[in-house]
Structures are given as structure tokens and as C-alpha cells.
Amino acid sequence: MRIEDIRTRLLAGGAKAIHEQRVLRAWVNAQPIGSGPHKAEDFLPLALRNDLPALSAELQALARLRSEHPGEDGSARLLVELADGQTVESVLLPRDGLCVSTQVGCAVGCVFCMTGRDGLLRQLGSAEIVAQVVLARTRRFVKKVVFMGMGEPAHNLDNVLEAIDLLGTAGGIGHKNLVFSTVGDHRVFERLPQGRVKPALALSLHTTKADLRAELLPRAPRIHPAELIERGERYARATGYPIQYQWTLIDGVNDGDDELEAIVRLLAGKYAIMNMIPYNTVPELAFRRPDWARATQIARSLHQRGVLTKLRNSAGQDVDGGCGQLRAREMAKGRE
Ligand code: SF4
């Protein structure tokens, strides 16, 4: 379901723009429509009022909690069931953040990611993306949403941008607290600046070498890392938010001194933050996590050389590692 479908249905029930806004605002803020000082539903057209129970039930069924896996760092992974029984993961992050999924599966096929192993199963509709925020808001306050869960947002661009528009307006989330995360795609650089809600941008870089990047991210668009950074820099200057570069640090793959030299050459002086995230080792894949001392040394050295660098543990690591694992485990159980 897309947000556009909800609007069409409201219109069919006789809703005017003000009614539509009330209903959508109540939904995206996880409030019952009749709540608040004005008993808003009393003012809705009769046909729409009669349709509200059915519509509310359908909206609730868009994203249901299948299981919750709290971590020690204040995060919690949620396995979310969609109306057709498919599942995706959302992560409640420390400091009122939420990470949402944009696709079931993913076509980019990053070799270090569990989500990419089965390819793309289906797109999420914009309403299903927002429904993950609504579900999270029934459990916690959410003031930041990052599109870094399962899927590549650039491959589902219309739905993701529609969700961003609603979250940044009726959803009350500050535009720089909506973070569009991508491996890099020309369409992203064309479309993002055109929206009335301009999100912050995270670019998954992982290496400065074009050939290694093609190996690690086999079906990402072939944009040279240097060009990606140039285009990112233009977006950062236009919006006033720094680009967040994501770098999954993998032992013996992209943690060498040659990479560090190239990062300094490309990123020093740029309006950017480098997020280094040591890879979470999983039994199914051959990659290894670098030791923490090496990761700390890399982050410190980049920082000293003019690249604002943050070393991060991926949230929820102690409850089972990277994105896609809860779903993979659940699917395996189903096959037993
Ligand atoms: Fe897709 Fe992201 Fe996994 Fe790559 S890391 S396969 S882009 S979900």
C-alpha cells in the first residue's frame, strides 16, 4: 500500500484537505484519530467516519511486531511482519532513533550482507515504510529515522521519497533527522534536491578502490568512489548537512594503510563524517571483524589527519549481528 492509496480512499469518503491531514497526522504519530482536544473524528464526513474502523485495521496490519530482541546498548531489533506474511527488520536505536527497511531482500548483493543473499523479494510500499515508524512509536518516542535497514532505498525511490515527505511533514521529524542511505545512484542525486523535504544523505563507500568496490557491492551502479564523494559534497553544501560515509571495516579487506591514505586524500576538508563500523562476523560468511585496537587506531589516525571519523558498533550487535539475520533465522526455522 502506498500513501497515495490512503489519500485516494480518504477522498472517496468525502475528505477535504484538512480531514486528510488530520487522519494522516494521527496515523503517523501513532495516535487514535478521535484523540486530542477537538475530537477530530466528529468533524469527518459521515462516509469517511464509517470507513475509519476498517481503514485503521488495515493500517495496523501493515506492520505487526513478530518478535523483539533487546540489546545491551539500549537498541532493540524488531522483526516486523507485513500484511502478506513477509518479514523485515527495524531497529530501535539509542537516542530516539529508528532504522527502517525499504525492501524485502535487496538486489545489490553486497557480499558481506545477509539481506543481499536471496536477492530482491519485493518492494515495500510507502505506507509500509511509514508503518514501521508508527509501530516503533507505539513503543518509544522516535525523532530520527534512518533508511539503513534491509534494502537499497535508491531501488525503491518513489516509495521512499513519499515516506520521507510524510515523515518530514505530518510526522514532525526534522529533515536532517531523516537519513537516506544508499550505495550511490545517479537518480538519488537528481531527485533528492527536488523534494520539499530534503533528507540527510549517507553513502556506503566501504572502499576507495573502484575494482574492489565492484567486488564487494556487485550490483551497485558503477560510480567511481571519487565521483561519489564529489556528488555527495555538492548535496552536503546545498542542504547544509554533512554526508555520512559508511565504511564496514573488514579484516584484511579494506583496513590497509593504502585505503587510509586514499580516504585522507578524498575526504580531508570535505563536509563529511566517516562512520567506521567494524564488521560483525557471522558463521555463514567468510569475512572477519578486525580487532578493536586496530579499528581504534584507524579511526584516530583519520581523525588526526582531518577526516571527522566516528568508530561505531552496529546497534544491536549483541542480539545477533547485522541486518537481515533475524529474518534469515526465522526463514531457516520455517524450513526445518
Ligand atoms: Fe543491500 Fe545494504 Fe545489504 Fe548491500 S548492505 S545487500 S545495499 S541491504
UniProtKB/TrEMBL annotation:
UniProt-listed Pfam families: Radical_SAM
GO function term, MF aspect, one: RNA methyltransferase activity
Signal sequence extent: none
EC number from the UniProt entry: 2.1.1.192
Plastid found in the keyword field: no
Gene3D superfamilies (alphabetical): Aldolase class I
Domain Radical SAM core: 92-318
Alphabetically ordered keywords of this record: 4Fe-4S, Cytoplasm, Disulfide bond, Iron, Iron-sulfur, Metal-binding, Methyltransferase, S-adenosyl-L-methionine, Transferase
Keyword Glycosyltransferase: no
Subcellular location: Cytoplasm
A single GO BP: tRNA methylation
Co-factor(s): [4Fe-4S] cluster
One Gene Ontology CC term in the entry: cytoplasm
Top-level EC class: transferase
NCBIfam families: PRK14464.1
Annotated family: Belongs to the radical SAM superfamily. RlmN family.
Identification of the protein by name: 23S rRNA (Adenine2503-C2)-methyltransferase
